[in-house]
Design goal:
Layout (H helix, E strand, L loop, with lengths): L4 E5 L2 E5 L4 E3 L11 H15 L4 E4 L6 H12 L3 E5 L6 H5 E13 L7 E12 L1 H8 L2 E5 L6 H4 L2 H5 L3 E5 L5 E5 L5 E6 L12 H4 L3 E4 L5 H11 L4 H16 L9 H12 L10 H12 L12 H15 L4
Parallel strand pairs: 4-11, 4-12, 5-8, 8-11
Antiparallel strand pairs: 1-2, 3-5, 6-7, 9-10
């Protein structure tokens, strides 16, 4: 079935449908909240309490989706997670008549008279946006700029006038008053160019945009240690190396905390047996970090330069072997 089915049992609301998730309103397991993250979270919650949707904007690896889900969990309402897609139409957000129900009545009361009545009814099914607006859930619209602007136009009245324009079963138009508990959190990547549409000014003007950049060192170390089995001091050495590569402008590399996590997980694997003084460690770092080379400089990228840079940084830090 294309649409959603909503059921309630002992206060628990569940949704079933394509690529739609209803998350429990509770904290994310293993989420690391440092003072840096807490400050952003508190600001977002303030905007949401004032009735403004929040737009988390940042390049890949800055933790937009994880932070959006964390903020949503702090609101205390069920969360509907929606992923932007260029194939979406308005019906994919609002809903529509995705099926028919037929009733057939056969009247053979008089054996010589055969009467048949057939009636067909369209079946309206709410989609994700309608469900969130109707029940006051928190909508997390991840990478919303991957959907076409004309599809996202339906959000304009939802965010400003708090009214959702939908089609009724009879094919006419009707309006749904948005539940006062409804909140919306959006994420987008401004640097990505493939499969991304330019968002309309009218929609962005209704949001409070929070630009996310790289985390501070304390947060990156805490996240890297939490996501791997490395000790904090070893995780700090990995983070310092990745941050040093990021600051080297001649390499055009912008590795995020995701690179630190990947390297740390390899180091913590007992089968890998890689140490900070091992040449294989430098090779692994180069493999992981090379994926963060900016597209504009990819043509002139030489892996040997990156490898030499990693060796120099490691030697300057004098890590133990």
């Amino acid at each position: 079935m294309r649409g959603l089915q909503c059921s309630r049992r002992k206060g628990v609301v569940t949704l079933r449908g394509d690529i739609t998730m209803l998350l429990e309103a509770r904290g994310q397991r293993g989420f690391v909240e440092t003072p840096f993250i807490k400050d952003i979270t508190d600001r977002c919650l303030t905007y949401l309490r004032c009735g403004f949707p929040v737009h988390l904007q940042g390049r890949a690896g800055t933790g937009k989706t994880s932070l959006a889900l964390h903020v949503a969990s702090r609101i205390g309402r069920p969360v509907v997670l929606l992923f932007g897609c260029s194939e979406f139409g308005v019906a994919d957000l609002v809903g529509g008549a995705f099926g028919f129900r037929q009733r057939t009545v056969v009247d053979n009361y008089i054996h010589s008279v055969h009467k048949t009545e057939i009636e067909a009814f369209s079946r309206w099914v709410d989609e994700r946006l309608t469900t969130a607006c109707k029940y006051g859930y928190t909508l997390v619209y991840d990478e919303f700029t991957r959907s076409r602007p004309e599809t996202n136009n339906v959000l304009l009245s939802v965010l400003e006038e708090r009214i959702l324009d939908i089609r009724s079963d009879g094919g006419g138009r009707t309006y749904l008053q948005v539940n006062p508990d409804f909140s919306a959190i959006f994420t987008s990547n401004p640097e990505e160019y493939a499969g991304v549409h330019k968002s309309q000014d009218a929609l962005r003007d209704r949001m409070v945009t929070v630009n996310l950049d790289d985390f501070d060192r304390e947060t990156e170390v805490a996240i890297t240690a939490a996501k791997s089995r490395l000790r904090v001091d070893d995780a700090a050495r990995v983070v310092d190396l990745v941050r040093a590569v990021r600051q080297r402008g001649d390499l055009h590399a912008r590795p995020t905390v995701r690179a630190s996590i990947m390297i740390a997980k390899v180091l913590s694997d007992p089968k890998a047996r890689v140490s900070f003084g091992d040449e294989r460690f430098f090779e692994i770092c180069a493999d992981v970090i090379s994926s963060s080379i900016l597209p504009a400089s990819g043509a002139g990228f030489r892996r040997g330069d990156l490898l030499e840079c990693i060796r120099d940084i490691a030697n300057d830090a004098n890590p133990p072997s």
